[in-house]
């Protein structure tokens, strides 16, 4: 006889994965393309007026096909499939269902950063609001339906504190001109702090370290292959997002 209590969460996680891929392939990718098009028009208008400021003068747009629905759908499918299989394989059904929309949105945000070195606030804020909502609902549900526990509010509070701490740490780096960090990276790291801080503080640190390691390895590879020079800027967003995702996979395991 099928145990409904065990099957329903798995079905819910699978449906969440499908919905997350749909969001990434349709509304999120559409917003990303409109966002990049807006930047491109802004740069063209500033060039015509001969008064481009530093914010738009440094915009370099490339690989725009990465933001097409098919590309984003394929990327989200890969990320969500790995997340789903890994999470279910380790028995973290609820945590996996909560992480899937974040993973999909991080994929889109990282793609935008790769295209134009910008991390759209709307994507990051949407992921953060999703996390805050599900954390609050989960904590309330555990306290009311399962057992009252002082640990639940503290878990949410710890996640918020980790978000503030991670954001503050990267903000300090942003203040150093040679760091190459942007305010978008600050917000992304705050989001990763919120996500991973719900599990444990050490996973926030692990995620950030992994992100910087991946970025460093890519920078070294680009320099060795002469595809970039020392003065070229590297988009940190994709690597920070990848580091956070890998840290989540390790935490679940």
Descriptive report:
- The protein has 253 residues and is mostly helical.
- The protein has 2 domains: 1-118, no CATH class; 147-253, no CATH class.
- Helices cover 79% and strands 0% of the residues.
- The chain has helices at residues 4-49, 54-57, 69-89, 93-116, 121-146, 151-174, 183-197, 201-224, 237-252.
- The chain is globular.
- Mean pLDDT is 89; it is low at 51-57.
The main β sheet shows up as: none
Percentage of residues in helical conformation: over 70%
Estimate the mean pLDDT confidence: 89
Tally of DSSP helical segments: 9
For the termini, the CA-CA separation is: 29 Å
Number of strands: 0
As for the number of domains, it is: 2
Structure classification = mainly alpha
N-to-C order of helices and strands: HHHHHHHHH
Name the shape in a single word.
globular
Beta percentage is under 5%
Instruction: Report Rg.
Output: 19 Å
pLDDT < 50 stretches? 51-57
Question: Which features characterize this protein?
Answer:
globular; 2 domains; 9 helices; 0% strand; 253 residues; mainly alpha
């Amino acid at each position: 006889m099928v145990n409904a209590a065990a099957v329903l969460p798995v079905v819910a996680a699978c449906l969440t994965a499908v919905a997350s891929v749909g969001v990434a392939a349709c509304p999120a990718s559409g917003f990303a393309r409109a966002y990049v098009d807006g930047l491109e028009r802004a740069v063209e208008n500033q060039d015509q007026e001969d008064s481009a400021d530093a914010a738009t003068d440094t915009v370099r747009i490339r690989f725009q096909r990465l933001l097409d629905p098919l590309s984003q759908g394929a990327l989200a499918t890969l990320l969500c499939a790995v997340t789903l299989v890994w999470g279910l394989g380790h028995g973290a059904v609820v945590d996996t269902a909560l992480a899937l929309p974040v993973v999909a949105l991080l994929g889109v945000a990282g793609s935008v950063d790769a295209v134009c070195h910008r991390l759209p606030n709307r994507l990051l804020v949407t992921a953060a609001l999703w996390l805050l909502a599900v954390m609050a609902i989960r904590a309330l549900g555990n306290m009311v339906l399962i057992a009252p526990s002082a640990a639940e509010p503290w878990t949410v509070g710890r996640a918020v504190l980790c978000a503030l701490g991670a954001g503050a740490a990267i903000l300090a780096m942003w203040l150093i001109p040679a760091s190459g960090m942007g305010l978008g990276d600050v917000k992304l790291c705050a989001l990763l702090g919120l996500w991973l801080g719900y599990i444990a503080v050490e996973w926030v640190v692990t995620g950030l370290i992994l992100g910087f390691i991946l970025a460093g390895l890519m920078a070294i590879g680009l320099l060795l292959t002469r595809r970039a020079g020392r003065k070229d800027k590297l988009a940190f967003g994709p690597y920070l997002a990848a580091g956070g995702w890998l840290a989540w996979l390790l935490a679940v395991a």
